[in-house]
Specification:
This protein is α/β, with parallel strands linked by helices. It has a single domain, classed as Rossmann fold (3-Layer(aba) Sandwich). The protein has eight helices and six strands. The chain has a six-stranded mixed sheet with strand order 1-2-4-3-5-6. Helix 6 (135-150) crosses helix 7.
Length: 233
């Protein structure tokens, strides 16, 4: 199975047999991708401005779910990066949780060019969309999302990023891509090793490239100069 799928199953505390036998894959892409059940925590929008917005990216507009406190001063920004299952209801709820805590939270749909993965019926259908989403494009889309936040009540001088599963890996990449901009990054069960797309840099924690091919935005002089620290293991 794919490393990102393994990470998601591990996070649910289900065995892989239970996950598959329970129809998690076949029922519309994981429990998290379905409409929120009554038993699941749903964060209210009271006191918030929340909903979908359009972010102007490099070659098109991309949808994003934005949640922020209504009125008041500029808020510290949190970029919320979705998992392999896309911009589903749980990710939107996470954005609202940040907003209720006083942050400007925004979660862009980083797979939009390939389609709406929350509506796909199997992991085999989502896999090519994930594999076909270049890291450099994701970095550019997150840059665009940050710029949007700066014009929409967010204080991008206080920028954090967090992500889940696939988004956990992206959290590492974006912290390396924008080290002078990102003030904090938290990766939730994001893999840092495993099968890589052909054009993905061969790195340790995506911070120390070994590839000679300059095929991504973050394999630059600053990252090549990075020195491994014991606390990063």
């Amino acid at each position: 199975m794919e490393p990102d799928w393994n990470a998601w199953v591990d996070s649910t505390r289900l065995s892989r047999r239970q996950a598959l036998a329970g129809g998690v894959v076949a029922s519309g892409f994981a429990l998290a991708a379905q409409p929120v059940a009554a038993s699941v925590i749903t964060t209210p929008t009271d006191g918030l401005v929340a909903g979908l917005v359009e972010v102007k990216a490099a070659n098109r507009s991309i949808p994003a779910y934005r949640a922020k406190p209504a009125g008041g001063k500029p808020r510290a920004v949190v970029l919320v990066v979705h998992e392999v299952f896309g911009l589903h209801e749980h990710i939107k709820d996470v954005a609202r949780r940040f907003a209720q805590a006083g942050f400007y939270a925004i979660a862009p749909d980083l797979y939009v060019r390939g389609g709406d993965v929350t509506k796909l019926a199997s992991f085999d259908e989502i896999r090519p969309i994930v594999a076909g989403t270049p890291d450099a494009q994701v970095m550019s889309d997150l840059d665009a999302t940050m710029r949007f936040a700066g014009t929409d009540g967010g204080d991008v001088k206080r920028l954090g990023v967090t992500g889940f599963c696939w988004g956990g890996r992206i959290t590492w990449l974006y912290a390396a891509h924008a080290p002078s901009t990102v003030k904090a990054g938290v990766a939730w069960y994001g893999r840092v090793s495993g099968r890589r797309p052909r054009c993905s840099p061969r790195t340790r924690l995506i911070l120390r490239p070994r590839s000679r091919r300059r095929c991504s935005a973050f394999t630059d002089r600053r990252i090549r100069a990075f020195r491994w620290q014991p606390w990063m293991t």
